Structures are given as structure tokens and as C-alpha cells.
Amino acid sequence: MGLPQNSPDEQQLQVGSLANGKYNAGCLPQDSPDEQQLQVGSQANGKSNAGCLPQDSSLKWWSKETIAVVTGSYKGLGYGIAKELAKQGVTVVLTARDEERGLDVQLDLFNKGFTNVVFHQLDISHPKSVSRFSTWLNEKYGGLDILVNNAAILHVDTIRDYQAAKDCLDVNHYGTKRMIEAMLPLLKASPEGARIVNVSSEYGRLQWLTDESLKEHCSALSTEDQIDALVQRFLKDAKEVEDGRMEKRGWAIEYPYYHFSKLCLNAYTRYLAAQLMNRPEGHKVFVNCLCPGLLRTDMTLQEEKLLPGGVTLATMDEGVDTPVWLALLPAAGGPSGLFFYKRKIMEF
Ligand SMILES: NC(=O)c1ccc[n+]([C@@H]2O[C@H](COP(=O)([O-])OP(=O)(O)OC[C@H]3O[C@@H](n4cnc5c(N)ncnc54)[C@H](OP(=O)(O)O)[C@@H]3O)[C@@H](O)[C@H]2O)c1
Asked: Using a 6 Å CB cutoff, which residues line ligand 1?
């Protein structure tokens, strides 16, 4: 039924082969010509998170003073990422829209020994919530080192109307962008560089578009204005296509709103990385996006076809592996503006 399954390995690209590619030209570290140099530690098979982070302690650049913010982290993948970052010794700001739920989870983690997890309410689709969060973060920690944009929504396929399309873009693309814009001035200067990790999806890739010229257009998006113009075109189509079959206009067949929102997030990741590329040493920001694999979470439990029988699901450890790896990569002029799956670079 056309939904992405586990990505075939042959689609995975080597770092070297993308070095002069369309999407990331100039964003790759010049001195990292091969994939090997992008591995942290020795394990990259995504089998288990345990022990896959730097075994060489000289590569460990972070400490309890390192501040990581994870959006939508009281459950699902976000919770897994927050817990793993805390396990690695980083101070984690766990966030949730619902204050009570977030505090409960923080208390539970505290009782399990994670004293380095703090909670603050955050709804990325509400400018006031984001601005309250920024003020608090700045006052409490003077900023952050790592931002993991995990929060997102997916409407089931039976809900297809203009409002659903708008809601999805408001959270997944504009909400994430709002967070990035609010956090950018708060990213701490450090020799290691700050990191922005955008949790995207294999199902945001260009290959799911049904029109070749649209695919080409989307692959060349390189400014905010271009992305915004495309969003307007998409929303116009969502309004006009009364039965919600967005493929009539070249968009994805299934979950077109979710697909497009992640496509925009990917394009924004490329754009942002290019914008931030020439920052001076000490002020570097590495921004990448990734697919965690297909996971059993509230998002995918909504509809049977999201978790089709016979498909091997990723474990939570596997899902957590790539985002945490990207968040904690050694400061080797690290990758930026790329899309990862199981620690490998994928085409957008
Ligand atoms: N599950 C998969 O197979 C899969 C595959 C590929 C990519 N992903 C991506 O992985 C990420 C995590 O998804 P998940 O599977 O863990 O789903 P999930 O369990 O539904 O978690 C989504 C999280 O986002 C939060 N959220 C939604 N709207 C928000 C808003 N406006 N402000 C702040 N937080 C908000 C949710 O909080 P509330 O409960 O308050 O809504 C929840 O904490 C998403 O970016 C998703 O697109 C998942």
C-alpha cells in the first residue's frame, strides 16, 4: 500500500558519493571523505544502542554542563532519545505540551536515577509557549548545546481536509522552524559546535511524490521563500482537492500531509545548514535530519496500515540510535545538512 518499509540498504549512500551532490554541496566536512570517519565508536549497525557511543573517551566532548532540549519527549521516540541522552550524562530538558504528564515522567525518571532530567512545558505550535520556554531556558542554563526536534503529528488517512493539512504543517514544519528560530540565538558557543537534530521520516523523501517535475522542483528548494511558496501551493491544492486524493496534483498517495510536512522539514534542514555553514570556529552549528525507522508508538498505532504485518519494526533502541549519535558526534567538523537512516546518509 505504498508506505515506506525499512529502507533497502542499496538506497543508502556513502558520504563520499554525496560530497559533490546536489543537496549538500559544501556542507560536508572537507576532511571527511569517507563514511568511516562519520562513525562514532565502532558500531553502526543500529542493532543496539548500548555501547555504541564513543568508546574512546577522548571523543567524549559532553558533560552534565551540556544542555539538550528534546521536543515532545514525555513518550514515544522523544522519551527514548531524552532517556538515552541522560544516560550518556547530558543534562536533558524533557518537554511536553501537557505539564502534568511531563512532570510525571520526569519524576519517574528521577526515581530511576536520572537526576539530570528537568522538565518544562512546551507546545511548539504556540508562539507564546515557545517564547516562555526560551526565556526560562536562558535564565536557567544560559542556553543549550543540542536541540532535538522530535515533536510531530500524523493524522490518519481518513482525515483529509484543508484543516488537517494546515495543522500538520503548523506542527511538523512551522512548529519545528519556530523552535529552531527561538533556540538559534541561545545555542552556546563551544569548540565542539552546537547540534540541531531534526527527526524526520523516510516517508518525507522526494521519491514518494507522484509527479516528476514536482520532484525536481522540490529537490532544488534552497530558500525559505521557495519552501513557503511551495507550502502555499500545497495548501491551495488541499483546499481544492475535495476528496483529499492529493496525488492528483503530484503529491504523495498516502498520508500526503505528513509526507509533505517532513519533505519541508528536510528542505529546511538543507537550507539551514547552508546558512550556518560559514560560522566561525567556536560558533559552528551542525544541523541534520534523520529517519528513526518504523516504530511501534502512539503515532503508528493509530491505523493498522501504518504497521503492516510482515514488516520488521525497529526496536526503540534502534530508533533512538541515530538521533543520539547525531546529537553527540565528535567535533570533527561534523556533517551538516544531511539526511540519515541507521547512521548512513540517504538521498533526500
Ligand atoms: N513511529 C514511527 O514509526 C516513526 C517513523 C518515522 C518518523 N517518526 C517521527 O518520530 C517522531 C516521534 O514520533 P513518535 O512515533 O514517537 O510519535 P508519538 O508517540 O505520537 O510522539 C509524538 C510526540 O510529539 C508531541 N507533539 C505533538 N504535537 C506537539 C506540539 N504542538 N508541541 C509539542 N509537542 C507535540 C506529542 O505530544 P502530545 O501527546 O501532547 O501530542 C508526542 O510527545 C516524530 O517526528 C515522527 O514523525 C516516527
From this structure: 71-72, 74-78, 96-98, 122-125, 150-153, 171, 175, 199, 201, 291-292, 294-295, 297-300
